[in-house]
């Protein structure tokens, strides 16, 4: 019995294993959150399932207030779900196999290489251990720095846990906060703003990028993927910050209500970087102008880095598609950037990711408009947020019908496992031809 | 002076000539509509410009009521603008060159071949003359059949003109109607429904498809492009009709208000086929459920056939992208359909069309949300309708701000000239490397 289950598990293709492990984690989380000690007041099965999926897929959409509904035990359950879902269940699965069997099968090495977008020939085990080490260090540092704010404010016990919880949620781009208005209280606090945004940007840019930076130190020595991610992240964040600052400057419900330029700049920065795909907020997302909300929907669709805790189609996919389009217009055979060409197969994969993601998101929006009444913009925003595992909401999550909650749950799962991975599984290909949304760039 | 203008015109690349000719037609139309005899009451420059661009780009969005504002002379101006804009200004330009110089330069033959999506080696002149002949026959037949309804109703003079006007607007997918509620009065009229929808489907499927059908008669002898367009049109129309019927069945403002199944079926059919991109309506578009409106936005984005009077990214582009994605998922080198492979270059071009169209439409929606207050769905619907040269509206056109009207004008022009054509012009490529949105399929 145990042997046959083990055999069945080892026989799964990587995308099947990935999809099943997120489903499994969500179901275990649901059971744990239903335990009497997990919540102050009873939560329904639907509320528990929604919360567990949201935490496992590191989204952060909530139907009940995280801080007041769940106990300390409940919060620890969420922390474990977020950490497992963020760093990648597959990593853990492979570590377990690694530890129990002493060595990594070649096909698992290949899968792991793709999970971490590591297209070079380096040692996969090193990258994997490295990712875990980096996570531990960042989460330790994040907790310490945030404690400087929250221990004086709340005392040692609550302050430290508060710091740890938000550090972990930030690094894993999970968006869960213990206050009902997320981090709005700290909208103009430089420490909270800088530590939290540094955590989710470093967690969301991709481990291979961080490893490349630490290994090679100089920009010109970096891999193409690393260069594009660094420049792309800088450009998109600064453009987004400027756009949001300009659009919201006259909004009496957001920037115009803030007393000074420091607060206006910090909130513009935070609202610009959180959609890709941290999910915290320091302004009322529902009070943003429709233009800003639509712009943020674009950022949520793009998302973060491949092989990271972030979601979306990934910034690298977006850049490849823009470069491929530009190259086509210029009559060039293939896009060339930073002196390197981008392989045709990467372009075909990017096209597939864009098409499948658009179909998923459009279908999600369409189904939600059928099941939910209310404002179309709010509904569309919710669907894009779920599919990008972002967690921002214009305030309709708690009011969703059961059908609407199920749609959001499915979108979160698809968003975290990756629409392309799901599509591969549905197209019945063999394990060896599977390629993840990660591994966008041809290096060398 | 005349010689140098002629030299300058002959030196333009085809996309430059196309863009300039639509601009020119619109400006001439504006001046004509400002003539005192064109309207019963004075129209502003902005109203004249908007109407002229809408007619020239065969869109059909209106800021003033076509039937009551303009005189018979004004209606004739609109007819000429629609016919020029629909059949393709380029065709007329090339005919003029052909007639004045006795022969067609090779590069103009190539341009014409692409305009009509005629990738084979057949005689271009034949296709061109053929398109004009087909147009004349269809418009004659359409007028005769519609006259059966409208001459008894309105008398010979008004009835004949009414029939001619709507025939021409339908075949050119121009969407202008003489009643303020479009064809809502005839929502359950089998004659009007069938003649009008047959006209805009045959005008919008692409002349090369019609020519292929008449030349080769049997399905298995048709070119790949023809097969895909025929099957694709049938499938998308039937699916859309079913979806709209199901969604709107319970809507008291649309289908539920209709007395019998005949009316429900005709209106479902009409609302399913008009978004790609005829622009007439027989139900109040603003009263459709948000889910239906969002679904119709998808249809408007897809649009009709290449080298036709329709707009959008074109059904063939949509099919190619779906096939390429499916082939990628199946691990196939390139998509194969009806026993023929689709060339890589076609896939790259489809990717470029999708990306540029999405960027145009998104930018349009974004800018409109900045300039216009009001419902986000209505604003987004308006932008997609303009960019797809569809002409359906949820009722906000007349209330648009001046900035909003300018955005819609620019979207209509981009939509008719083709986002890819504009992008080519902006990317400063030479004439010989230009490929139009037409010419999607590799035949043979
Ligand atoms: K998130
Ligand atoms: K139209």
Descriptive overview:
- The structure is a homodimer of 444-residue chains.
- Chain A has 19 helices and two strands.
- Chain A has 444 residues and is mostly helical.
- Chain A has one domain.
- In chain A, strands 1-2 form a two-stranded antiparallel sheet.
- The longest helix of chain A is centred in the first third of the chain and has 31 residues.
- The C terminus of chain A is likely disordered.
- At the A-B interface, helix 14, helix 15, helix 16, helix 17 and helix 19 of A face helix 14, helix 15, helix 16, helix 17 and helix 19 of B.
- The complex binds potassium ion (2 copies).
- The site of one potassium ion has 12 residues of chain A, from loops.
Q: What labels would you give this structure?
A:
homodimer, 444 residues, two-stranded antiparallel ribbon, binds potassium ion
What's the arrangement of secondary structure elements?
The structure is a homodimer of 444-residue chains.
Chain A: H1 2-11, H2 14-34, H3 45-56, H4 66-69, H5 72-87, H6 89-101, H7 106-115, H8 124-154, H9 156-171, H10 190-204, H11 207-216, H12 224-248, H13 261-273, H14 290-302, H15 315-329, E1 336-337, E2 340-341, H16 344-371, H17 376-387, H18 402-417, H19 419-426
Antiparallel strand pairs in A: 1-2
Helix pairs in contact in A: 2-3, 2-5, 2-18, 3-5, 3-18, 5-9, 8-9, 8-10, 9-10, 10-13, 11-12, 12-13, 12-14, 14-17, 15-16, 16-17, 16-18, 17-18, 18-19
Bound molecules: potassium ion (K) (2 copies).
Keywords (chains A, B): Cell membrane, Ion transport, Membrane, Potassium, Potassium transport, Transmembrane, Transmembrane helix, Transport
Transmembrane segments (chains A, B): 12-33, 45-64, 76-99, 127-148, 160-179, 191-214, 226-247, 285-304, 310-329, 350-370, 402-427
Protein name (chains A, B): Ktr system potassium transporter B
């Amino acid at each position: 019995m145990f042997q046959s289950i083990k055999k069945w598990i080892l026989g799964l293709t990587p995308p099947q294993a990935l999809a099943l492990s997120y489903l499994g984690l969500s179901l275990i989380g649901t059971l744990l959150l239903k335990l009497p000690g997990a919540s102050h007041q009873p939560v329904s099965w639907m509320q528990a399932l929604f919360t567990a999926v949201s935490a496992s897929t590191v989204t952060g959409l909530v139907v009940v207030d995280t801080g007041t509904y769940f106990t300390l035990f409940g919060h620890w359950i969420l922390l474990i779900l977020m950490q497992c879902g963020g760093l990648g269940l597959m990593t853990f699965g492979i570590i377990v196999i690694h530890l129990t069997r002493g060595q990594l099968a070649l096909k698992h090495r290949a899968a792991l290489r793709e999970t971490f977008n590591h297209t070079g020939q380096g040692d996969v085990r090193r990258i994997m251990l490295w990712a875990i080490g980096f996570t531990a260090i960042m989460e330790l540092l994040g907790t310490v720095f945030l404690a400087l704010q929250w221990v004086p404010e709340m005392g040692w016990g609550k302050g430290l846990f508060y710091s740890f919880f938000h550090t972990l949620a930030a690094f894993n781009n999970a968006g869960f906060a213990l206050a009902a208005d997320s981090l709005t209280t700290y909208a103009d606090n430089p420490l909270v703003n800088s530590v939290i945004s540094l955590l989710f940007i470093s967690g969301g840019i991709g481990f291979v990028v961080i490893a490349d930076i630490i290994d090679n130190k100089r920009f010109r020595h970096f891999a193409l993927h690393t260069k594009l991610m660094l420049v792309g992240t800088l450009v998109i964040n600064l453009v987004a910050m400027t756009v949001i600052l300009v659009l919201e400057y006259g909004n009496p419900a957001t920037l115009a209500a803030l007393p000074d330029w420091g607060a206006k700049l910090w909130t513009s920065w935070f609202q610009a970087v959180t959609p890709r795909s941290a999910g915290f907020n320091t302004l009322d997302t529902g009070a943003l102008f429709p233009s800003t909300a639509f712009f943020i929907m674009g950022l949520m669709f793009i998302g973060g880095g491949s092989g990271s805790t972030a979601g979306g189609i990934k910034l690298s996919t977006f850049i490849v598609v823009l470069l491929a389009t530009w190259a086509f217009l210029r009559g060039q055979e293939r896009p060339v950037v930073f002196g390197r060409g981008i392989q045709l197969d990467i372009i075909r994969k990017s096209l597939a990711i864009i098409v499948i993601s658009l179909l998923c998101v459009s279908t999600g929006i369409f189904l939600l408009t059928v099941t939910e009444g209310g404002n179309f913009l709010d509904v569309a925003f919710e669907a894009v947020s779920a599919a990008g595992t972002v967690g921002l909401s214009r305030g309709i999550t708690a009011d969703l019908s059961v059908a609407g909650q199920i749609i959001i749950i499915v979108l979160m799962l698809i968003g975290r496992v990756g629409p392309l991975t799901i599509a591969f599984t549905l197209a019945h290909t063999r394990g060896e031809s599977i390629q993840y949304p990660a591994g966008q760039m041809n290096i060398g």
